[in-house]
Amino acid sequence: MAVQKKFALGRGLDALISNEEVQTSGSSNIGEIELSKIFANPNQPRREFDPIALQELADSISEVGIIQPITLRKINDDSYQIIAGERRYKASALAGLKTIPAYIKTADDENVMEMALIENIQREDLNSLEIALAYQHLIEQYELTQEKLSERVGKNRTTVANYLRLLKLPATIQMALKNKEIDMGHARALLSIDNPQIQLKIFNEIIANGYSVRKVEELVKSLNAEKQEKKAAGNSKMPESFGVLQNHLSSFFGTKVQLSCSNNGKGKISIPFKDEADLERIMEILDSLKQN
Fold this sequence. Notes:
The protein is α/β, with parallel strands linked by helices. Strands 3-7-5-6-4 form a five-stranded mixed beta sheet. A two-stranded antiparallel sheet has the order 1-2. Strand 8 and strand 9 form a beta hairpin. The N and C termini lie far apart (about 95 Å).
């Protein structure tokens, strides 16, 4: 008899098996399954496993055994597909085990990817790009909207949308995110820039200088503010005399002074500097004016 219940992230894998829209049939049981009869799920969202961490887990398994069974789907008497626990399966093989304790569940093909994804997210086994790719896979394969997907995985729609936006970044940045060279916070800050070339420029600075997420956020905020200023300046027509004044100030301070003016006559003068020494030079000029 089909079982119909509702699942949400955070209530365990058993909650996932029970959903009004996810039907499973047959029985669930636990048993010792030969590793030779187990194979990975080709739609497993996780693609790579840290070899050092995998060996550490294998050492732990050799010493204390498998603490938590993996979850399998029975294909036939001699074949089982992994729903959740591929890392434990690989580590058990490294440890030389011949069998592994497993929960055996019946699940149709349509639900296996969802089950693997949610179980992995619960364990924080996926990096942010892997989660994004898995979300995209679900959307495309099952024709889900972001709202429907958010219900399926127990996340709010904004969270799902933020993950999916990562797939709009240049491939170089996506690879760095996958390889944990940058954090999701870095990536989200870069998404605030709509120019891929500038995204890559800032990304290279992050790698070269080891910028924190907050530093990148500040840098991006400054760039966007500058862009808005230039846009506002371009939209407003300054009197010709302002152009003469701008050139005069630039010559006086030895740097390209920015002068902006709104339609109602209000404006702003910006004096850029290259580094601390250049700032001190400009301050000395201003101090000399005050003394005069």
